Structures are given as C-alpha cells and as structure tokens.
Amino acid sequence: MKKNICLLLLVIFSFKGFSQEKQTIYYLQDIISKKPIENATISIKNSNFGTISNEEGAFQIAVKSDSEISISHLEYKKHSLKLSDLDNDSKIIYLEQNILELEDVIVTKEPIEQLLLKAINISKSKFNKPIVLNTYYREFLKVNDKYTRFTDGLIDFHMNGNTKKTDSDLIVNQSRAAKLISDDDETLDLASGLDVRKATTKQYNFYTIEKILYDSKNYQDYDFELKSKIEKSGNEVYIINFQPKADLKKYLYKGTVVFDPNTYLISDLEIASDQANIQYTKVINILIIKASVLDLKLKSSFKVSNGNYLLSFTTRKGKIKIWNKKKYNEVIEYKSDLVVTDYKKDDLTYSKKSVYNDKSLYERGNHYTDKFWLKNNSMVLTDEEQQVITKLEQEITK
C-alpha cells in the first residue's frame, strides 16, 4: 500500500508543474460577444508547428515571443499577429466573425449523399503518406459522473497504407497516467474502450461517418442539405448537413461536413448523437453485461500545409451505459483530444520493436523526462479539468 501511495505522490507532484512552472496561455474571444472560441487552429509562420484552442478558448504555444502566428476558424476571419505585440496583462486575442454570404440551398443532379461519399474518397486518396504526425494525446475518463482516470502523452503516428486505407504505427515518446480515485473507493476503475492505436487512422479512413451513413445504405434514414458559403475574399466552401428523417424511431446522428468544391478535400467534420431519439438506442450484449450508447460527439479538422493534406486535430466525447442483473449499473464517459503539433516525411527507419501495441495509453504509465505537457504545444486544461488535478493533489498530500 505504501508503495502505491509513493507512486501516486510522484505523479501528483509532477502535476504541480501546472502552477509552478511559468507558462504563457492565451485566450481567443469573439470581439463582440466576448465568448471563448473553441477549436481554432493556431499555426506558426514558416514552420509546421501548430495547436488548437480548448473549449474555453485557451491555448499555449512553445515559440519565441517575436514569432508570428496565424489563427484560423471557419466562422472567423483569419488573423495573424506577433506574440510580442500582445498586451502582457490580458493575453486575450479577439477575432472578428466572417461576414459570409449564404447562397440558396444548392440543388445537384447527383444525390448529396453520393457527393459526400465522393469527397470522402478523394480526401482519403490525398492524405500524404508515409508521413510522421507528432502529436499530443490526452484522455479523461468518468464513471458515474466521477473522474477515475487521466492519461496523456507525446505520440508519433507513422502513417502508411494506400490511397484507399490508412494504417499507422505508434511510437510513444513520453507519457503519464493517474488513477483519480482512491483504493477504497467503490467506484469501478474501468477502461474507456478507446483504442489509442486507431486515434488517427479512424480519422484518415473517415470510419465514423462511413459507419453511420454508408453501412447497409444507412443514408436512406437521413435528410441531406447542401449549402455554399462565400467569404468576401472570394473563397468558397461547400457545407453538407445531415439529420435523421422525421418520425423515424431509431437512434441516429446529425452532422456537418465542410469541403473545398474545387479539390473535394474535407476541412471540417462534426458528428453528434440525435438526443431526441435516445430512447431507441440499441442494447448490445457483451459476454455477461449489456451496453448501450447514450451519447457520441466527434469533431475533426484537416488542413493543407506546404502541399501536405493531413489531420490537424480531433476530439471525441462519448457516454456509454453498462449493466447486468447482479452487479453492474455504470455510466462511462470519456473525452479524448489529439492535436498534431508537427509533421515530417517518414524515412521509415524506426524500429518495429519500439511500436506501442497496447490498446490503452494508460497502461504505459508514467515514463517522461520533462514536463512535456507544458511544452510541445499541448492542449491547455479547462478549469474543470484543472480542478480535478488540484483536488487530487490536495487529497493525497493531506
């Protein structure tokens, strides 16, 4: 027991770096409403480095103060600035909304679901491979509304495969993990079910949207709408929205896909459960337990950088209920974030023996040489997530 406490203390003291080590965090806000801007892409001029803002609009980026950054978001004007020009006290960056002219709904001879499939297939074929994606990955887990696990790490995804399907090998450079409940807590210490090995390949293969819409021609359950947005600069994007047909007694999804009408390359993808029909969610039998999906949210962004088409970031949120008659009645919630901080052409010289083969990054435990979570453009914790870490530290050090 003492050994376990010592190990946990080591993890907790490492978390103190969040408050002890000086770091620069910036905040994106709407210039009119002052609301935070989530999932904006922040790039560094003349480099491949980048990061994204969290749901509170916060981001950190490891660059020199005189570096020029570029901030982009579909709903806001692209903004470039030098960090040295910012107010040292506020650290707030205001963005102006795009003034977009919304055209009438586009009517095409080709069914919209087939137009979307065309964009998916072309995007799949255009991903640059072999390529190494340097990423920061993070995962939080709750069981019955209580935080139970946390893990994050720096992972290199060696992307390979052909134009139709992408595979990857993982090299985990650094990682940390913490159990967020005590040994005498009755809350079950369960895994999330996420597979870190597929964190990028599922996005490159557009697995979720193909599963939802095209397995067994499921697109017949949905209504589709195609629109065009034109910026005053003249740039145009196509937007496909889909939602369940009215009066269907099925647990379905809704979503938005944005792509370039000239190249058919997808730039943004959002999918979420339609909570209006949650009562129709399917019950799945898994050995001695039953399970059902209560919620699912996925958002991914892709970019073209120096002629390379690649993933920019992805965030996944889910809620699953598991139960049986004798023991279990649990609700599992997970949230995972992955941001591509850099990339390079893969020289394929990495050792196959160093490839990470466990499904969960949590199993790797704590193996790090520095406070990587404060560097490498990793995502900033939200206030709620920071409170989890702070509370854990206080409880262990009492």
Could you describe the 3D structure shown?
Helix 1 (2-15) crosses helix 6. The strands form 3 sheets. Strands 8, 9, 10, 11, 12, 13, 14, 15, 16, 17, 18 and 19 form a 12-stranded antiparallel beta sheet that branches. This protein is mostly beta strands and 398 residues long. It has helices at 2-15, 17-20, 112-126, 201-204, 207-213, 383-396; strands spanning 26-30, 41-44, 50-52, 58-59, 68-73, 76-82, 92-95, 100-102, 131-143, 146-161, 166-179, 222-231, 236-244, 253-259, 266-273, 284-286, 289-305, 308-323, 329-345. It is globular. The longest helix is centred in the N-terminal third of the chain and has 15 residues, at 112-126. The two termini are 17 Å apart.
Blueprint of the fold:
Elements: H1 2-15, H2 17-20, E1 26-30, E2 41-44, E3 50-52, E4 58-59, E5 68-73, E6 76-82, E7 92-95, E8 100-102, H3 112-126, E9 131-143, E10 146-161, E11 166-179, H4 201-204, H5 207-213, E12 222-231, E13 236-244, E14 253-259, E15 266-273, E16 284-286, E17 289-305, E18 308-323, E19 329-345, H6 383-396
Parallel strand pairs: 1-7
Antiparallel strand pairs: 1-4, 2-3, 2-5, 5-6, 8-12, 9-10, 9-19, 10-11, 12-13, 13-14, 14-15, 15-17, 16-17, 17-18, 18-19
Helix pairs in contact: 1-6
